[in-house]
């Protein structure tokens, strides 16, 4: 009985430890920010596998959705509803592009790096619509400077 109690205590400690390490990162969906109109803030995140990104509705009429061309092979993707404060957990290393569906061409995009990964050449070659392409190139330039 004593051993059972100890085992339970250890299990509880382990459960606490793993949840303490997995973080939730908040990203604001905004009509205007430091980077101009229609932005996610921040527009670039480096997180660890198991971490969650929560998209906060700072202003109305935005969503968060994955970009198929800017996702690792085999990633099923997701699409939040308009005004939904969706939470997305990333378990696998890689780079993940995010777009606001109605404001994609207006440049409302961001990039998430999960774990240890290098930016695939196919991402650089991909032409996102409108201002989104310019914003992604700016993000890639920042990554290159690190
Ligand atoms: Cu938007």
Automatic annotation (TrEMBL):
GO terms for cellular component: periplasmic space. Gene3D superfamilies: Cupredoxins - blue copper proteins. It holds the Pfam family Copper-bind. Binds 1 copper ion per subunit. InterPro entries: Amicyanin/Pseudoazurin (IPR002386), BlueCu_1 (IPR000923), Copper_blue_Plastocyanin (IPR001235), Cupredoxin (IPR008972), Pseudoazurin (IPR012745). SUPFAM superfamilies: Cupredoxins (SSF49503). It comes from the Bacteria. It is found in: Periplasm. Cu cation binds at residues 62, 100, 103, 108. Residues 29-114 form the Blue (type 1) copper domain. Its main location: periplasm. Its cofactor is Cu cation. Residues 1-22 form the signal peptide. GO terms for molecular function: copper ion binding; electron transfer activity. Keywords: Copper, Electron transport, Metal-binding, Periplasm, Signal, Transport. This is Pseudoazurin. It comes from Citrobacter portucalensis.
């Amino acid at each position: 009985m004593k051993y059972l109690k100890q085992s339970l205590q250890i299990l509880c400690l382990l459960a606490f430890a793993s949840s303490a390490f997995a973080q939730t990162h908040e990203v604001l969906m905004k009509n205007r920010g430091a980077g101009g109109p229609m932005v996610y803030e921040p527009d670039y995140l480096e997180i660890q596998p198991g971490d969650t990104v929560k998209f906060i509705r700072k202003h109305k009429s935005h969503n968060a959705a994955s970009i198929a061309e800017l996702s690792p092979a085999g990633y099923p993707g997701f699409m939040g509803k308009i005004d939904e404060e969706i939470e997305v957990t990333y378990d696998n290393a890689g780079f993940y592009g995010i777009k606001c569906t109605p404001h994609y061409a207006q440049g409302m995009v961001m990039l998430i790096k999960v774990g240890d990964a290098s930016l695939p050449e196919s991402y650089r070659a991909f032409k996102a619509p409108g201002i989104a392409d310019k914003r992604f190139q700016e993000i890639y330039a920042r990554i290159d400077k690190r």
